[in-house]
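INTERNAL AUDIT FORM
Audit reference: QA-55
Scope: verify that the stored structure record matches its stored sequence.
Auditor: D.O.
Record contents follow.
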Amino acid sequence: MKPDMATVNLVYMAAARTGGWVSFTTHLMHGLRAAGYTPRLFKLTKRTEPFMRSFGMGFEYQNVSITTAEYLAEQSVPMIVTCCWHTLADKLAPLVERGAHLVVHDPAEIKRAPVLAQVADTVRPGRLVVIRPVMLTHLPNALLVPHPYVRAPQLLRTAEMHAVSYARLDYDKHTEIVTGANELLPDDRKIDIYGSDFNRLYMYRVLDDRTPGWRSLYHGPMPRNDLWAGARLAARARRVVDMSVIANDGGGTQYTFLEAIDAGTPLIVHGKWLTGVPSYDVMAPYVHTASTATELAGLLTGPLPNPVGDPTELLIKHDAATVAKTILEAR
């Protein structure tokens, strides 16, 4: 593909094939298209390949070496590094020196790779991007934009499940609270569980040890080729549960949250997700909270009032085309 003035190069510096980085990159590419740009996606690897591979959700990418990525960054085409795994953080500097935008998603990325924070200090003004207000406490010179989100087409609400959790199974997602609540809930109020099972150690050491029967309600990983799989699951449930807690983070959105709101399904999050700082707690008007299995089971047993905020207004702020233009036009 020959680049033109409307081309935007995106560099995905990670191996993860599911999760928030993939969702961010894919929604951003949709937003770029809607804004009139042509996104081209690259993955940083050891060598440059002449062919394209499937990224999922209707997009393709090309594997490129750091030498090729540096060459691309020197061209008169905007570049956005949409994420960076800590093992590749030492490759970032030459890209941002050449003007690439850099997205930092949460404080864990900085903690795993201190060099990431050092590189962030060298990003040109307006080109360091964060996606939750609390992240400005870690990177105060960053540009804050909402998660880019494209609303799911033709959602059909069935509410056939009482509750669903579709975050990955992991320590920071506190799936053990979900499985613990299931042990307290009657059969007609249990939480159906979906999500990536890549952390087998957590599954064996925590879930199997604490709640041996949890797998009877686990339905496997989320499909890779449906960007709105989470929203479709949310539309099939009366409640969405997400017990995520990220150290020194919180208050804002995650894609599971946006998908639940898009589906019109009440959302229960971990009590520690809200920070207590109104300017950070974007999600406060839209969620109910629980911090233990007992609290979660209590919320799912009784009637849950509707959120007080207008979710449509929140989704408008996250419009992917608007976010894409904000990133590219910031200086």
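Auditor finding: record pair retrieved intact. The two ends are 28 Å apart (CA to CA).
Action required: none
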